[in-house]
Amino acid sequence: MNATVERKHFSVAINWAEKPIEWHLEQYGSWLLLDDLHIGSLGASSVLGHLIDTANGIVVDKRERVAPLCKITDSHADAVSDMLEDLMKIENEKVKKWLKVVVMFYVEFKSEATIAKKLGVSEYSVTRDKMLGMVRLATKYKFRSRIIGA
Questions:
Q1: Which of 48, 93, 94, 143: CA 20 to 30 A from 103?
Q2: What is the CA radius of gyration of the chain?
Q3: Overall pTM > 0.90
């Protein structure tokens, strides 16, 4: 018999209240960097390849901010991924734009200047959209957040 483990809904899969939502997003970004879980990753297994590429002038790592050490499990990462997917399905276009900035900053570790350049907006717009996205995320699911101090 092939027993399939059913994935818990993201809202109950992990303890969201334990850490601020920013921490969960950054940890998800770090998890994506582990062992080729994300294209262009720098897991422990690819460090030598990265050094060779760097010596040859090839830019592999696109992060602009330092990612924290990954401290989450696969199921924790799945919960964060499910939460982000859920949001992108149900929110309007304006909120999706804010959330895109949140993901670029917290998950992809891009700088505000790079996000502004990539999206063709000012750094002020990026800062504003990042804040609005985090407020929406925190208030929608009652998450703790550094931005709203809850």
A1: 48
A2: 17
A3: no
